[in-house]
Amino acid sequence: MKAVRHMRKDEGGEGGTIVNISSTAGLCKYTFLPIYGGSKGAVLHFSQSLAREPFYDNTGIRVITLCPGPTATKLMEGLDNRIVETSSMKQIQSLSDVQIIQSIPSAVAAMMKLLKEGDNGSVWLSANDKPVVELTEKINKHLDELEKLTLA
Ligand SMILES: NC(=O)C1=CN([C@@H]2O[C@H](COP(=O)(O)OP(=O)(O)OC[C@H]3O[C@@H](n4cnc5c(N)ncnc54)[C@H](O)[C@@H]3O)[C@@H](O)[C@H]2O)C=CC1
Ligand SMILES: CCCCCC(=O)/C=C/C=C\C/C=C\C/C=C\CCCC(=O)O
């Protein structure tokens, strides 16, 4: 939030863009990553809450979220040894039939696209070496429906 204070137009800054990095683990209920997944769900929710009107109008700061799937960085090394619940290995094994560890250039291409084209509050998926997919409408529909249920 210190960066926001520095960037915000209504306090003398120039506006700008914040890209928060969530993960597919913040979208899916992976039994093998409950703590990491919880933190990534929090990143997404934090971003969507921050990006809500009138934040952008006041500050000129876009808040965008990228959800990468497994990507070949150091983070993915030795994942097997860091699993909390060993019975969850089954879920990883079945996932490996339908998901690949994508290359770093795929994640970078996604980042470049959302920096160029992403609206405030937009959410993007980059996985399996496929072109980036925008998730904003789906995520907001889901959150807006849940919010309605909380109203009297
Ligand atoms: N690699 C993957 O499969 C995925 C990664 N992500 C997310 O992408 C982000 C980047 O991860 P990777 O590049 O994959 O990991 P990485 O392990 O290759 O890089 C992480 C970087 O963060 C730095 N770092 C760690 N703790 C820090 C701290 N307290 N203060 C400052 N710097 C710190 C490390 O020195 C390292 O350079 C993370 O938020 C990760 O959760 C999301 C989805 C998939
Ligand atoms: C420390 C946690 C790193 C988590 C990285 C992340 O954010 C998201 C990961 C999502 C799933 C990763 C789980 C397993 C990998 C699944 C399939 C790829 C296997 C392909 C293979 O070559 O074996």
UniProtKB/TrEMBL annotation:
UniProt cross-references to Gene3D superfamilies, sorted A to Z: NAD(P)-binding Rossmann-like Domain
SUPFAM superfamilies linked: NAD(P)-binding Rossmann-fold domains (SSF51735)
Annotated PROSITE patterns: ADH_SHORT (PS00061)
InterPro entries registered for this protein in UniProt: NAD(P)-bd_dom_sf, Sc_DH/Rdtase_CS, SDR_fam
Catalysed reaction, written as an equation: resolvin D1 + NAD(+) = 17-oxoresolvin D1 + NADH + H(+); 14-hydroxy-(4Z,7Z,10Z,12E,16Z,19Z)-docosahexaenoate + NAD(+) = 14-oxo-(4Z,7Z,10Z,12E,16Z,19Z)-docosahexaenoate + NADH + H(+); prostaglandin A1 + NAD(+) = 15-oxo-prostaglandin A1 + NADH + H(+); 15-oxo-(5S,6R)-dihydroxy-(7E,9E,11Z)-eicosatrienoate + NADH + H(+) = (5S,6R,15S)-trihydroxy-(7E,9E,11Z)-eicosatrienoate + NAD(+)
Enzyme class: oxidoreductase
Keywords: Oxidoreductase
UniProt GO molecular function: 15-hydroxyicosatetraenoate dehydrogenase activity; 15-hydroxyprostaglandin dehydrogenase (NAD+) activity
Domain of life: Eukaryota
Enzyme Commission number, as recorded: 1.1.1.141, 1.1.1.232
A GO CC annotation given for this chain: cytoplasm
Pfam families: adh_short
PANTHER family linked to this entry: 15-HYDROXYPROSTAGLANDIN DEHYDROGENASE [NAD(+)]
Primary role: Catalyzes the NAD-dependent dehydrogenation (oxidation) of a broad array of hydroxylated polyunsaturated fatty acids (mainly eicosanoids and docosanoids, including prostaglandins, lipoxins and resolvins), yielding their corresponding keto (oxo) metabolites. Decreases the levels of the pro-proliferative prostaglandins such as prostaglandin E2 (whose activity is increased in cancer because of an increase in the expression of cyclooxygenase 2) and generates oxo-fatty acid products that can profoundly influence cell function by abrogating pro-inflammatory cytokine expression.
Family label: Belongs to the short-chain dehydrogenases/reductases (SDR) family.
The protein's name: 15-hydroxyprostaglandin dehydrogenase [NAD(+)]
